[in-house]
């Protein structure tokens, strides 16, 4: 009986000790709360820092947008000024075209009254431009170029380069690209001659702004058979239109060129 009582007392003591260990003291609970508050404060500080960084980036973006708006406004103003200049130039051109009808034929284009007013001074200058015979035509356009050496097996889409330039009035032809760019609008005659070595075949098209405007097929079959083919096109070109010759089908053999057989490209404005 005594043993049972002692055992029950020991069990009670152990239970109380275990219960006491599971229950935290107020001091420990306060420490846990402080740590939790510290963690939350650190998170809040981090979020505030990220918020400030985002606000700074937003400010920079808004500043960039403001700069872009100013640039757009500046471009729009320049565009308006250019439009005004175009209108003024067209008006001046119209006045120049009407001036010959306003001159006295007995005075060879000289105004009857010669005074120093600004309007008359302007009229005299315009009349000088219209009535004085030019020393050289400013609209004369012509070019002639040829290959200095043969071109073996040119590939498809290859632009022919005529590197020796003998005539280039108006500076429209570029020997590095093989392309003629019309300096002014008008009707042009374009002609070309292609020489082919034996056992050769070449499909060549005249291109205007990458659109086909003419073509030549050269073909030689027998040994010692050389072929020379020429073609001509009359084109209406706008200022800035580009014209060149291009291989448009895989070639066979050599595009021949030497001092006896000129492979050439030429043209002139009518």
From TrEMBL:
Cellular component, GO annotation: extracellular region
Signal peptide: 1-20
Classification via SMART domains: C1Q
SUPFAM superfamilies documented for this protein: TNF-like
Keywords: Secreted, Signal
Region (Disordered): 96-125
Subcellular location per the Swiss-Prot or TrEMBL entry: Secreted
Record's keyword annotation contains Cell membrane: no
Principal location: secreted
PANTHER family the record matches: C1Q DOMAIN-CONTAINING PROTEIN, CEREBELLIN-RELATED
Protein name: Uncharacterized protein LOC111120578 isoform X1
Organism: Crassostrea virginica (Eastern oyster)
């Amino acid at each position: 009986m005594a043993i049972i009582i002692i055992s029950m007392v020991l069990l009670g003591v152990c239970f109380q000790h275990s219960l006491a260990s599971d229950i935290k003291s107020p001091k420990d609970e306060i420490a846990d709360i402080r740590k939790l508050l510290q963690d939350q404060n650190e998170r809040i500080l981090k979020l505030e820092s990220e918020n400030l960084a985002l606000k700074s980036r937003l400010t920079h973006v808004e500043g960039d947008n403001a700069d872009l708006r100013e640039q757009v406004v500046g471009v729009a103003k320049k565009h308006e000024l250019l439009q005004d200049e175009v209108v003024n130039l067209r008006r001046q051109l119209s006045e120049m075209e009407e001036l010959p009808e306003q001159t006295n034929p007995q005075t060879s284009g000289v105004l009857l009254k010669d005074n120093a007013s600004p309007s008359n001074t302007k009229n005299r200058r315009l009349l000088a431009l219209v009535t004085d015979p030019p020393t050289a035509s400013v609209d004369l356009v012509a070019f002639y170029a040829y290959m200095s050496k043969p071109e073996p097996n040119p590939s498809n889409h290859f632009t022919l380069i005529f590197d020796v330039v003998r005539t280039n009035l108006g500076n429209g032809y570029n020997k590095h690209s093989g392309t003629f760019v019309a300096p002014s609008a008008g009707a042009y005659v374009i002609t070309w001659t292609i020489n082919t070595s034996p056992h050769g075949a070449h499909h060549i098209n005249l291109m205007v702004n990458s659109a086909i405007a003419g073509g030549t097929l050269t073909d030689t079959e027998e040994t010692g058979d050389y072929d020379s083919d020429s073609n001509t096109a009359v084109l209406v070109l706008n200022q800035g239109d580009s014209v060149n010759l291009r291989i448009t089908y895989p070639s066979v053999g050599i595009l021949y060129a030497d001092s006896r057989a000129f492979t050439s490209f030429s043209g002139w404005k009518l």
